[in-house]
């Protein structure tokens, strides 16, 4: 059970890393997440059931997520629609897109190959494949984010989130940075959706409900537990925050609480994490 939970924590951490790029770096919330996450799973599962290899199907899911981010970015920057409303519009529209892609509200991967099956030749104990695949993908995503944010383009992206007016005065095309950020963020989120769908063996159009809370919990838990960190350390803290969050959910299950209400437990955990720093400040101010 613990091994399975850690594996799930790694796969959900990818979602947290995607949300980090908009919520913390660009400094705005993107509700497209609740659409791009199941979209990645829906496109990936549909591709696999049509004979596409799991790796290519996962990449197609990522591309679908990036297109969702592009749609939100264009509504936000060119249509001048507030970011929250832009995200809601795209999230709602993606429901129909997923129905069109899957031809039904959900789709199973029964008797289909998955990305985790690529490690079958190692004869690993149950659920270790999720840990290994999760670690490999996390290394690629974390490495990619660090390399990107240390390029000139990445520095312009960070400057856009830090101080948009200053960034514009330096000649940075801030609208392009926002669109780019939304595309990369939602691509990573869709990657998480594609991996989770393969892990659970099915895709469902309702899978995205409440996932933004899980992603934010990973970020907030990491910040709460580890405090001020470098960029690399912050990304690792998100991964650890995701694993800890999944362990907390495991505790809820082990306590035999009704899992029908799992999302309210998730919201309570996140609310506690958000309130905790305020208690720290008050305690420090005494």
From TrEMBL:
The chain crosses the membrane at residues 9-26, 55-76, 83-102, 131-158, 179-197, 209-226, 235-255, 261-279. It is found in: Cell membrane. Coiled coil: none annotated. GO terms for molecular function: transmembrane transporter activity. Its main location: membrane. Keywords: Cell membrane, Membrane, Transmembrane, Transmembrane helix. The keyword Secreted does not apply. GO terms for cellular component: plasma membrane. PANTHER family: ABC TRANSPORTER PERMEASE PROTEIN YPHD-RELATED-RELATED, BRANCHED-CHAIN AMINO ACID TRANSPORT SYSTEM, PERMEASE PROTEIN. This is Branched-chain amino acid ABC transporter permease. It comes from Vagococcus carniphilus.
């Amino acid at each position: 059970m613990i091994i399975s939970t850690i594996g799930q924590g790694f796969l959900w951490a990818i979602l947290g890393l995607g949300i980090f790029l908009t919520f913390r770096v660009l400094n705005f919330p993107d509700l497209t997440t609740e659409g791009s996450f199941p979209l990645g799973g829906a496109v990936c599962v549909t591709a696999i059931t049509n004979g596409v290899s799991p790796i290519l199907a996962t990449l197609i899911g990522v591309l679908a997520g990036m297109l969702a981010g592009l749609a939100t970015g264009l509504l936000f920057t060119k249509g001048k629609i507030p970011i929250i409303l832009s995200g809601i519009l795209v999230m709602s529209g993606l429901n129909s897109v997923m129905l069109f892609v899957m031809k039904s509200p959900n789709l199973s991967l029964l008797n289909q190959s998955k990305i985790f099956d690529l490690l079958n030749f190692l004869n690993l104990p149950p659920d270790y494949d999720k840990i290994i695949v999760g670690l490999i993908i996390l290394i690629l995503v974390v490495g990619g984010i660090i390399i990107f944010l240390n390029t000139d383009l990445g520095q312009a992206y960070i400057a856009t989130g830090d101080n948009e007016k200053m960034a514009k005065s330096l000649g940075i095309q801030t609208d392009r940075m926002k669109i780019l950020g939304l595309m990369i963020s939602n691509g990573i989120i869709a990657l998480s959706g594609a991996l989770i769908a393969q892990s659970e063996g099915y895709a469902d159009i309702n899978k995205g409900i409440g996932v933004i809370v899980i992603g934010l919990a990973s970020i907030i838990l990491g910040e709460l537990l580890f405090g001020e960190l470098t960029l690399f350390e912050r990304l690792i803290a998100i991964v650890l925050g995701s694993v800890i969050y999944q362990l907390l959910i495991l505790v809820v299950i082990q306590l035999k609480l009704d899992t029908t209400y799992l999302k309210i437990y998730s919201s309570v955990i996140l609310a506690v994490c958000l309130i905790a720093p305020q208690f720290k400040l008050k305690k420090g101010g005494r």
